[in-house]
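Lay summary

Proteins are chains of building blocks that fold into shapes. Our project writes down both the chain and a compact code for its shape. Here are two examples, one after the other.
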Amino acid sequence: MEGATLVLVILSAGLASQWVAWRLKLPAIVVLIGSGLLLGPVTGVIDLGVPQAELADLIGLGVAIILFEGGMALRLGEFRRVGHGIGRLTVLAPGLSWLFGSLAAHYVAGLSWPVSLVLGAILVVTGPTVILPLIRQARMNKDSASLLKWEGIVNDPIGVLMAVLTFQYFTVTGGGAMATMVSLASALAAGAVFGGAGGWLTGRLFGRGSVPEHLKPPILMVLVLVVYWASNLVQHEAGLLSVTVMGLVIGNMKLVERESLRHFKENLTVVLLSVLFIVIPSQITMDQIALLDWRAALFVLVTLVVVRPLAIAFATIGAPMRKEDRLLLAWIAPRGIVAAATAGIFGPALVTAGYADADRLLPIVFLIIIVTVVAHGLTIGSFTRRLDLAARNAHGVLVVGASRWTSAFAQVLTRLEVGVLVADGAYGRLRPLRMAGIAVYYGEILSEHAEHELETQHLGQLLCATDNDFYNALVCKSWGHEFGYHRAFQLATHQERDPEARRMTVQQRGRIAFDPSADHETLDARLRDGWTIRTTKLREGNDLGEVERRLGTRGSDWFLLGGTMPSGEFRLHSIERPIKPVAGWTLLYFAPEQMRA
């Protein structure tokens, strides 16, 4: 197959697998690995014809960008909040996981000690590319999510570095404890100089405007690859540690363009993950798959139910952590792209070095990836809810802007048992809501404090209802990625009745809530005139059309606000994304006191 055609096949298969996984609500990594095996050892469609060493170098470049993007997602504010747990997971747990994993690989899987020790180091990593989607899926609270996220991102380069040092100890002529310590010091120095100092210098140049805006994302991508390459010249595979440190530094600098850079990296990461999880499993042969036996299956089981729980139990002894978080960490540890890429590098290298049983390393790692992703992906929701670490649903509404109208709206939602949180920077405006028992957040919703501390896992929609149209639009764009831009709403702007050319475009604002005439001034005036927020339940033969016939013209005589489904899910109404209520729904509407549906 021609090179261009092969690249197109890999890209198409990868992104198609991502879409299929989304449609079927399956972990994407499982579908990707299945596609890679189908196109590789099963059908032989993908035959790269690239030497193993060159392929490993190319895979390393992709993994470097993925780890950099993960490093940018780390916030030092999270470390300050749950640092006691993060320290245990990133300092003590890797060594314990390596020890227990190596023992299991030798005595259960039957591998030689050198191969067992390398495999134990590889399995230290817990896959941020898998962890982060699972956290979003489970709607986990921020403290528990931070523990899993920091462990997954920080332990990836640590595990790779441990595998490198172990490999060198057994394969490099003249190696030994001293040589290993020198290699470790070299890797740490490379991470500090290239990753730390390089990241700080890059951030300074970007912040001072030394690079034009349109060149910042591509230049940053190239700089990440340069740091990875330069670090590897100092110490083999130290590049992954350096790019993670670089991402951590840049992600925590107060750069105006931080979010745009992060979004660029996120999009690139999706493509890279799709490609890598097609390419790596496609290189497995049927002979390697045949090496999987009952001992390999038993090793996978022991890794899940013995090795991981033991490592977490010993690492967190005496730590001021909740019992529920310990139980969560003891179970949730899916492996991802870094484990697969590292196994693809060291498996063949160990075979070349004379360790024949290293042929089993790559298929065993892929078996662990598949089993852990499926097992943890299917159980994380129920497991976290049982431990009371996650919201049972995400039907609530985050209301930004306290006023008489939003207070009345929040009280009706509370009566309907819909979760609601009202945020405002003026304590006086929040006082009536607090007196009514409504959950509030006192502070600036766009602040770093809100980003770190505000628990939104039970909230599925955003309503910006301040008297400043442009502030509402800004909040919708800033928090849209959290809720989904199709669930970020704002009150109608005063320009909605002006000519189209004078309005804010949909790319600049949230979706218009309720009706184009329902701006802040109008809602407040109607409330002073005696309008109230009411509910009515639709029954058979009583549809939305019947409600309109009773109440009059929607948008002038009354406003439709939203509705709750029979399942309890609440949906805000928008003229741009209208609800379609049927029998069993409970409608919320705003109308004069004497008018009832």
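And here is the second example, written the same way.
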Amino acid sequence: MHGWTGRILKINLTEKRFETISLPQDIYRRFLGGKGLAGYFLARRAYLEWNAPQMPILLMTGPLAGTGAPASGNTVIASRSPLTGTVSDSSVGGALGAKLKSAGVDGIVVEGMSDAWLGIEIHNQTVRFVSASSLCGQPLSRIADQLETKGAFAAVGNAAENGVRFAAVMIDRHFSTARGGLGGCFAAKRLKYITVEGTGHVSVADNTVCKTAREDIRRLTAASSILMGEHGFFNLGTSALYDLVYSRRMMPTANFRRTVFDSAPLLNANAVRRTYGMQRFGCEGCLVQCLKNSENGMQLPDFDTLAHFTALIENRDLHTAVEAATACSEQGIDTVSAAATLACYAEIKNESLTTDRILGLLEDLGAGRGEGEILAKGSFRAARELGRPECAMTVKRLELPAFDPRGAYGMALAYATSTRGGCYANATALSHEILRKPVATDRFSFSAKARIIKIAEDQNAAVDSLVACKYLFFAASLEEYARVLSGVTGELFTATELSRIGERIVYIERITNMHFGVLGEDDTLPNRFFTEDGSSGPGFAIPRINRREFDDALSRYRRVRELLEDGTPKKEKAERLEIEWNN
């Protein structure tokens, strides 16, 4: 095989043993890698609770990792979410994907449960089980200091140790799985970290084809204003979106009670650059380098983090927002869920959060003590325990990111239909509704959005299976990446086939969610968006979403996706997609 190694490392923590398994080549052709292979393995564990010993944690890379394909070295980490109960996966940068391939495997399946905190250290085909108790309670920056000499690594912080439902997994110091609480899955198994080092190389079938396709991708990327322009990700990071979202009057403010934050112009990406300076860094081999450090090396917040730790919690101090982001990073907490849970709590308590209060609650949250004990459960559970369930701005129990759905109806539908909950990563409508590229769509209309979101879900599932960075798809397309994949593997792939593979992956996730008890009735939005207007202003209004129109769009989506009217997957559709149907 070219591109793939053909081997998966399977580790049992209970018995402290490991083995290498081989998958049929047909499985690689149908699921590619990354998100696809993770979904393939999760479908076989759809009867298990998230913390069951045999519920696997999956770390899967793709056929393009280690080949020089642009921005294609990501790793997908997946399991069942402790926060939502849904399928949860996160495509994350860093060197882990390339190191897995150089170690001779396409991914890792971790099962079982250790009786004490443990580290797994992988070097080529050798696996060591190492006591990790000395790392417990330490900030993640100090853990990174001790692990980075051992190769690429994935590690969890004290938030995971203390049972925070939205604990993250840190990859190579600067990257994080963030959404869904996958850090909690590590903690349930007493798995503190994994390190990977290897000396092998990835076999490529046709370097000439790969080189031509790579150059096409680089040219398209260089021509993209949002990626490489003066006000794009290359220069400002993803916080370049801050002003755009503010100007569109769709910045979630005061726990989504308003959609405009008056202090936003003083807290944008340029304000961050003036205050802290900006140094570029990012994934190896990526032109965009969308992550940003300050002049003294401190990691600066991305768009969702900056927006939520300012507008959503009504914080007007930039330093507080940056300190809050750093506090989450050190403890291993998803910044989006953390800020959204604070916003929900502030609304319930009718409280304006001061700097000391914000940082104090985050510290208590990570430690699972005092008020932080209830906040660690996430806003959905916290709001219900406090008797105000309507204050939790979640879909499928996952807190919403920094785009108010009243300002972009495609985004609203994407939130509702996402298999992992309130997130735009599965089918972002950002390019056409907010960036107005390549063709602007009416952001206050559901017209054609059902098909657009279905197509975007299929594409993004394929991208997360290759595993490539979705940001590059603001410029490139599946057509260019199909050519790269063909050159790497020596097998012909087309953009149409990659979309079909993506459709298969989305459908198998919906089947798995069905077995997890996540039903069609969960494909909806918080009631606030149907009953309360956004913050209208000069030139246009931000009305509440019409529920009938939303329901009609959801019904159209289900027809396009070939689901039953109640959102349940169809057995005959699964069979046409060559998915094994388990009753």
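What can we say about the second shape? The CA atoms of residues 409 and 443 lie 6 Å apart.
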